[in-house]
Each structure stands twice: as C-alpha cells, then as structure tokens.
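User: Structure please.
Assistant: Input sequence and predicted structure:
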Amino acid sequence: MSENEIQALITLIEDPDEDIYAQVRSRIVSMGDRMRPVLERAWEVDDLGDLFRSRVEDLLHTLHLDHVEGRLKEWCDKGCEDLLEGALIVSRYRYPDLDEHRFRARLAAIRQDIWLELNDHLTAFEKVRVFNHIFFQVHGFKGNKRNYHAPQNSFINDVLDSRKGNPLSLSILYQALAEDLDLPLRGVNLPNHFVLAYLEEDSVGGGSGLQQNILFYVNPFSQGDILGRNEIDEFLQKLRIEPQEAFYQPCTNRDIVRRQLNNLHHSYAKQGDAERAGELDRLRRVLGAPADEPPRLNP
C-alpha cells in the first residue's frame, strides 16, 4: 500500500459512517505493526477532533494487544526457554514502551553483586544464604503484603522498580538471577503460593521424579526462607488440599507465565476492569489456559 493510500485510510478514521469506519479499522488492523508509528504521528499532529483521537487510541491499543499476543506465540514456539523473556512480554502488555535492555542491565547489576560473594566451595545452603543477603537485605526486595492484589505486583518491571512483589513475581526475578549464576533453582507451582526448588546438580533438566532430587525449597515471598518437604506437607494440610506430585516438582516456564497471566486476570477482575480482564483471558489462552480456568492467585 502506497503512502497516499495509507494517508487516505488515516483520513477516513473519523468518518461518521460506522460501516465505513468498520472497514477502515479492519484494514488498518490487518496491516499490523507497520501502522503503529503512522497512527502515533497522526494522533500527535492531526487536529481532527475527539472522534478521531478516540478511534486512533482504540486502534493503537488493538495493534499493541495483537503485537503482545504475537510475541507470546513466538515465545511458545521457541519452547518457552527464556523465563525472563516471557515475563517481560507480559509486562509489555501494560507498558508498551518498556526498555527491556535497561531492565536486563539493572538485573545484571544485581547478578554481579551476588556473583562477587559466591564461590565454588560454598554448599547449596550457603549459596542461597549469600543470594538472600544480597537480594533481600542489600537490594531490599520484599513481599508486598499491604497491596497484595494490585496488578503492579505481577509486572516484573514494577517489581524491580518498587522492590515489592507477590510470591510469583519475586520468584521469577530470583529464578532468572539464579539461572545466570548457574544455581539450580526452579519454580514450584503450589496452590495459592509459589516457591522455588533447589535441585541436585544432576537432576537439572530431568523429567519425572524430580521431587526425589530436590535438596530444599526457597520461599522468596518470605525473605528466602528455606523449607523442607515437611513444610510443603503442612502448608497443603492447612489448605485441606490432597498432596499431588505437581505440588512438589518444578514446573515449566510456560506454567509460570500462564500463572502470571492468571494472577493479572484476577487482579483486574477484582478491580472491576472487565476490559483488561478479557484481554488477559485472551493472552492466557495462548499458553493453553481455557477461558473458564479459575486463576490461582498467590496469597
């Protein structure tokens, strides 16, 4: 499509005929990301009234949601290997202009602080204690118990800024740092909670039966407290939930990001924001979550 044709489409955005606008909207959306800078420029410089601006804002939001959904699909197609990438895609839903390079650089600085205090002679327990000291005491991360259900607790860029999060978001940052430090920590998808499992070195990347090779669990929401299997048993008993193998085993990155989307869906629904809840529902279906799947929100 030529520049003149694109400009003609832009002009038709404010056509009062809803049928004509529906066709224009469909055409613009079908053109995808290439239309975003065009629409942004039009919104900034064209003085075509409130109808034009509101429709442009709607189009930009639709294109952005399509973009996030597309990136999430690409992440899945690549095997969901990079947990941080998946979590940052979720953050982009709320923050289109998120500077991922700056985010990763800030996280790398924390990683460097931890690395300087680690050595190969430390035991697994000692490594976690060092990690906890830098992560929680030096850099000040903690669980956000006061505004627990707020959406910002699920966006990892917000968590990095505020140093406050929920069990899942804190665990995502903790696990991402641990992976860069070659520490074998993996997420465990508990009902109403989320912790990390410290695996024996030879069990990393293994399949079933990983619970037999777990040295201990780490609770990032509680300043990195170390837990044993007995504490997991007691937690499930308090909830009156029958133990299942999945409650003790590491889960996949796909599971973690799906739960992140579930938590956000719940947060927006709790706020009465049906539009955003619906959009989160659409995104979580990319990861295989059915529309009627109840969110499992961390306490």
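The chain has two domains: 3-77, 83-286.
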